[in-house]
Design goal:
The protein is mostly helical. The chain has helices at about 5, 10-25, 30-40, 60-75; strands at about 45, 50, 50-55, 55-60. The strands form two sheets. The protein has a two-stranded antiparallel sheet. A two-stranded antiparallel sheet has the order 2-3. Strand 2 (about 50) and strand 3 (about 50-55) form a beta hairpin. Helix 2 (about 10-25) packs antiparallel against helix 3. The termini are far apart.
């Protein structure tokens, strides 16, 4: 017998993310706000060149900029 999340095609991590979001949304206002803050992430990365770390950048911001740049060059 397979787990319901597996049978529906979800990964375990995705299943946990959905379950956590449902629990956070079911809380009353003050505990919900605190729980949502804990659930936020800020991913950062840095390029390494010649053995030296470059500037730390926000992943979401860098990804959005790269997608916009790709869209601009793709329409030319």
């Amino acid at each position: 017998m397979a787990f319901a999340w597996k049978a529906s095609g979800l990964t375990y991590n995705r299943y946990l993310a959905i379950a956590a979001r449902v629990v956070r949304r079911s809380l009353k206002e003050e505990p919900r706000v605190q729980a949502e803050k804990r659930g936020e992430m800020d991913l950062r990365f840095a390029k390494w060149q010649n053995g030296k770390q470059g500037e730390n950048k926000n992943l979401a911001t860098a990804n959005a900029a790269a997608m916009a740049d790709h869209a601009d060059h793709g329409q030319s």
